[in-house]
Amino acid sequence: MVKFENPNGYIEITNSYFSKLVGQTAQSCFGVTGMVNRNPVQSIKSIIKNKVDIDTSNQGVLVRSVNGSLVIDLHIAVSYGVNISTIADSITNKVRYTVESVTDLKVSKVNVFVDAIN
Question: E strands along 1-118, which residues?
Fold first, then answer.
């Protein structure tokens, strides 16, 4: 949960909201075929959860607050034959812009990990 103060008081935004926002933004970028789980434990949890929930856009996303700004880790799968460096730059720019414009919070870093090629 990310908590920050504005002139009207405190605002708390859940990690679930950030995960869905960032996951949907990343999946909308050209060349991204999907999100990939960060570790085996998360894979097992998502298999169990996906029997109930069809939306998997939030898997492979970790958002944390460091010194008042956000650090975002993304684990993605990309299409075969695309320029990975270009896709990573595109995702970084789009995720940073979307999160900063929607939440008015500063994003200090977006780490993109390509875990699969489809």
Answer: 2-6, 9-13, 32-35, 61-66, 69-78, 107-117
The token duo for 103 is 């939440």
Q: Which of 112, 105, 107 is nearest to 96 (CA)?
A: 107
Tell whether the model's pLDDT for residue 26 goes beyond 60: yes
Phi-psi region of 9 (alpha: psi -120 to 50; beta: other; left: phi over 0): left
Global confidence as pTM: 0.79
Pairing, β 69-78 against β 107-117: parallel
In sequence order, what are the beta bridge partners of 76?
Answer: 35, 114
Neighbours of 26 (CB within 10 A): 27
Burial of 78 (0-12, 13-18, 19+ CB in 10 A): buried
pLDDT at 64 over 90: no
Helix (H, G, I), strand (E, B) or coil at 91: helix
Distance (Å, whole) CA 9 – CA 62: 26
> What value does the mean pLDDT take over residues 110-115?
94
